[in-house]
Amino acid sequence: MNIQSNKNIVYVTDKNISYIQFKKLLEYPEVVHAYTVDKNVDFKTVSNHSKDKNFDIAINNYKQLCSNLDLEFNNSIRADLDHTDKFKIINKVEEANFNITDDKYDALITNHSNVNLITTSSDCIVFLIYDPIKKVISNVHSGWRGVLQDIVIKTLRGMNDKYNCDYKDIIVCICPSIRKCHFEVDYDVYKMFEEKFNYDEIYEKKGNKWYIDTVKISKIKLLKLGITEKNIIDSNICTVCNSKYINSYRADKEKFKLNTAIISLREGEDK
């Protein structure tokens, strides 16, 4: 689906940075969120060191994005991604410090205001999650390994365990990612999926390659958990198909950049 003609999102662009927002989340003024769709910016932070050129470039881009969204950059925390099935509960962010989580986590959860939860991606699925009753947010990064390990399901269960979130209240927004049309794998990866997810219309074989619908697998798992169909909001955007606008590892190869997703609660919304 084309970015500009999408019923589920709003496309925001200006001279500094372009991003999408989900219309469903925009119904809740206490939630601030965005997923960047801009080939001119890169959120790839190679190291947490001010002398690293790539880090400086990424930090400046984060500062610009936070400024656009009226968020305090110093209240940001970024997951140190490693295709795990682990999430982290965030209770506070150190003042004036753009933190990276100490350990490897692929999902962040908080019910505190003024805490910006950040993940990055370049074809992997990102889920932006909100419980409007308990006022809890989450940002989940899920590559194909994350889908196999049920990272988004484990994160939602964590929200239920920690904050007593009811699955029927939770909104799950699916950001742009590689879709079945381009997620081509060899037999070994296909076999791992086929042994765990025996769902209809998930797999397609073309020659010696298999194409897997990881987004559909995720939707089925979300429904089985108890998320309602009306609260699963898909951008329906393939990063590879739209690589003119969105950074894509498969399309851009060694020159790939990273997109970022951010979600935060405005002040006064703590529970």
Describe the protein in words.
- With 271 residues, the protein is α+β, with helices and mostly antiparallel strands.
- The protein has one domain (9-177, 232-265): CNF1/YfiH-like putative cysteine hydrolases.
- 24% of the residues lie in helices and 29% in strands.
- It is built from seven helices and 16 strands.
- A seven-stranded mixed sheet has the order 1-2-3-16-8-4-6. A six-stranded mixed sheet has the order 5-7-10-9-11-15.
- The radius of gyration is 18 Å and the shape is globular.
- The protein starts with 8 loop residues before the first strand and ends in a 6-residue tail after the last strand.
- Rounded to an integer in angstroms, the radius of gyration calculated over CA atoms is 18 Å
Structural category is alpha+beta
Mean pLDDT: 91
SS summary, helix count: 7
DSSP summary, beta strand count: 16
Strand content: 25-35%
How helical, in percent, are the residues? 10-25%
Order of helices and strands: EEHEHEEEEEEEHHEEHEEHEHE
* Number of self-contained structural domains: 1
Spatially, the strands of the biggest sheet line up as 1-2-3-16-8-4-6
Outline type: globular
Distance between the termini: 37 Å
pLDDT under 50 segments (min length 5)?
none
The CATH level-2 architecture is identified as: 4-Layer Sandwich
* CATH class value: Alpha Beta
**Fourth-tier CATH superfamily name:** CNF1/YfiH-like putative cysteine hydrolases
User: Major sheet: size, sense and barrel closure?
Assistant: 7 strands, mixed
CATH fold annotation: CNF1/YfiH-like putative cysteine hydrolases
